[in-house]
Every structure is written in structure tokens, then in C-alpha cells.
């Protein structure tokens, strides 16, 4: 996952190319998010990336803020970053060994019809024995929402999914 950080922080003057927004709204038959979490043993950091459909994120942020949010052409990118961080922090919580984590928002990028958002948690003591995830991402909008989670510690990778209305997943390592 460290490569994601290189794409975000590529140096002075770096500006990712924003894809054009489609003229018609996307009508996708699946409502899904995928969240990858990896414990970086060397740096004692939990690296998190979450991929969602951009139109779903725009709808959720618009509903949460009461304003129209355009991810492809934001009037204020810093404000959109705060809105994404606030939404995900209220709808995605992670505990390692029964200790709640404060997710630090790193950034986001658009990939065709999807948005990747990135988080990290630094200064962890070591790899967790138990991971508890609470997620109700987009549940307020769709009762067909599926949230998929992958958690890796070295070569040990575990995965699960939460179908609406389930909100808690637990991994034991």
C-alpha cells in the first residue's frame, strides 16, 4: 500500500488528472465498497484504503452536508476532503485489541467512476491479535449495500463482507 502514498504525495506541483464526469448518472446494479487494511510491521502503521462508487459518495456527502457535492469538479477541494474524512470517520470505526483508533485522513483520488480514500493510524505498538470493524457506510441510502473488508498482517490476510443491515466484523489473528 505504500505505493498509494507515492501517488498522492508525488512532489511539488503534482496534480492528479481528474476524469470527466459522465453526463448521465451512473446506474450501477451493485452497491458495494471495498476497504483494504494492512498493518505495516516496519513502520508500525495501519494503512487503510477504501474504494466506493463516486456517485454514491457524492449522494452521501450531499445528504450529510445539505449541499451538492461534486467530486469531479470541487469548488473547494479542502472542504471536500474534510467532508469525506468526517463521513468515513462517522460510518467506519476500527478497534485493534479493543482499543478504538483515530483514523488520520491522508487524501483521496478518483479512478473512473470510483473514489479511493486513504487513511492511516500511526505509532501502533505492534500487530493486533483482534480487529473489530464497525461499518454502516451508505446504509442510510441503500438497503442493498455490501461492504467488503480485507485485513492483512504480513502474509496473513483475512476477508469478510457486511451485507445491510450487518454492521460489525471481527478478525482474530
What's a concise summary of this model?
By secondary structure, the chain is α+β, with helices and mostly antiparallel strands. 20% of the residues lie in helices and 39% in strands.
What does this structure look like?
- This protein has a six-stranded mixed beta sheet, sandwiched between helices.
- The model is unreliable at 1-24 (pLDDT under 50).
- With 173 residues, it is of the alpha+beta class.
- It has helices at residues 2-8, 54-65, 77-91; strands spanning 32-40, 45-53, 92-96, 99-100, 104-111, 114-121, 130-135, 146-153, 156-163, 168-172.
- 25% of the residues are buried.
- Helices cover 20% and strands 39% of the residues.
- Strand 5 and strand 6 (114-121) form a beta hairpin.
Task: Tell me the layout of helices and strands.
Blueprint: H1 2-8, E1 32-40, E2 45-53, H2 54-65, H3 77-91, E3 92-96, E4 99-100, E5 104-111, E6 114-121, E7 130-135, E8 146-153, E9 156-163, E10 168-172
Parallel strand pairs: 1-8
Antiparallel strand pairs: 1-2, 2-6, 3-4, 3-7, 5-6, 7-10, 8-9
